[in-house]
Amino acid sequence: PPKKKDIRDYNDADMARLLEQWEKDDDIEEGDLPEHKRPPAPIDFSKIDPGKPESILKLTKKGKTLMMFVTVSGNPTEKETEEITSLWQGGLFNANYDVQRFIVGSNRAIFMLRDGGYAWEIKDFLINQERCADVTLEGQVYPGKGADGSEKVKNKTKPEKAKKKKDAEKKSNGVKEDNRATNQREEL
């Protein structure tokens, strides 16, 4: 058993352990738990369409906080970006979507969703706005109505530095690694 200490001699670590012991015995409802301690929602595999990978993401993100980046087209000031994204947030609020908005640049904002299952519906709303250049969701960039010709590459993925390093290592090692299925089998 742990050595008994006078309560006046407790430090922060002792107080934290004491709080954990108290919370362990408490009956906390699932809704009150922080998101990382909640059990994941069960996934209904009958609703998954194998032809649409977005349907899998919708079900796995349901009930989890999700963030999406939105770029405003043109060359807006931060105040204009604030006004435009405020209108979009208001439209989403009127459609009963709980969205918080944070301005992160002169033409960029983050939309934070409490329930990531609605992210693709919100993305569809945003890309149909006149001043929306693009929406980035789960690493995928979706061009909006306001994108100019150079930005309208359908569903491109942002390049990652780590991926470039891996590709360089593969080429230098001469190892062929691919994600595609082939007709012939390679011996290991």
Automatic annotation (TrEMBL):
Gene3D superfamilies: 3.30.70.260, 6.10.250.640. Keywords: Chaperone, Endoplasmic reticulum, Signal, Wnt signaling pathway. One of its GO terms (molecular function) is low-density lipoprotein particle receptor binding. InterPro entries: MESD. Residues 148-188 have a biased composition (Basic and acidic residues). The keyword Chaperone applies. It is found in: Endoplasmic reticulum. One of its GO terms (cellular component) is endoplasmic reticulum. It comes from the Eukaryota. Residues 23-32 have a biased composition (Acidic residues). The keyword rRNA-binding does not apply. GO terms for biological process: protein folding; Wnt signaling pathway. Residues 21-45, 140-188 are annotated as: Disordered. Belongs to the MESD family. This is LRP chaperone MESD. It comes from Sitta europaea. The lineage of its organism: Eukaryota, Metazoa, Chordata, Craniata, Vertebrata.
